[in-house]
Design goal:
mainly alpha; 10 helices; globular; HTH-type_TetR-like_transc_reg; transcription regulation; DNA-binding; TetR/AcrR family transcriptional regulator; transcription
């Protein structure tokens, strides 16, 4: 007789749901994602997903808050390392690029910030965006102008990576755009995203 399979603790199952949700929301977007698809990837029942989070909206909000927390933690880790102030922005940019290597993180953020009109998700999106802004201004020491410019460039970074543009470096316009956007991190972006996105486009 086979021994009974051990059940994961509730906290671990919740974490596995959030990980699967980021993957599904990242692939399909908020509207097309289903709790059934998330449950299948997490290896649990759809009923358990609903019992844990209540609804797809609540699950998306929890996933988005987790993603924002990852960005906040990554930026704070850079800040905690110290170093010359003039190097802080390139290092924050590199930290974000490495986070965006997880496509679920990248696209969940993109979807979150396009849902500002939604009565349930909008407040979460605004709070998350402003949280990142205040970390840049108050903890990283950027001026309001530099923090705003960093966020603007971050949105451009997200769009470029979301479009898989690093796979098209044979196009001179793409190469120029990557160099202007990522500057000292251009080689890193090409290394992390070029071959992967090219494979996805074949």
């Amino acid at each position: 007789m086979n021994p009974p399979r051990q059940r994961l603790p509730a906290a671990e199952r919740r974490e596995s749901i959030l990980t699967a949700a980021a993957e599904v929301f990242g692939e399909r977007g908020y509207a097309a994602a289903t709790t059934d698809a998330i449950a299948q990837i997490a290896g649990i029942s759809q009923a358990y997903v609903i019992r844990t989070f209540g609804s797809k909206e609540a699950l998306f909000i929890a996933t988005a808050e987790r993603v924002v927390e990852r960005v906040a933690d990554a930026f704070r880790a850079v800040i905690a390392e110290g170093g010359p102030q003039e190097q802080i922005e390139p290092r924050l940019g590199e930290a974000y690029v490495r986070l965006a290597e997880d496509r679920g993180t990248l696209v969940t953020l993109l979807h979150l910030f396009t849902l500002g009109h939604d009565t349930g998700i909008g407040p979460v999106a605004r709070e998350g965006f402003l949280r990142i802004y205040t970390i840049l201004r108050d903890e990283a020491g950027l001026s309001a102008t530099r923090a705003t410019a960093f966020l603007g460039n971050g949105m451009l970074v997200s769009t470029i990576l979301g479009l898989h543009l690093p796979a098209s470096t044979d196009d001179p316009a793409v190469s120029e755009l990557l160099g202007s956007t990522f500057r000292e991190n251009t080689a890193l972006v090409t290394e992390l995203f070029g071959s992967a996105t090219a494979a996805n486009n074949t």
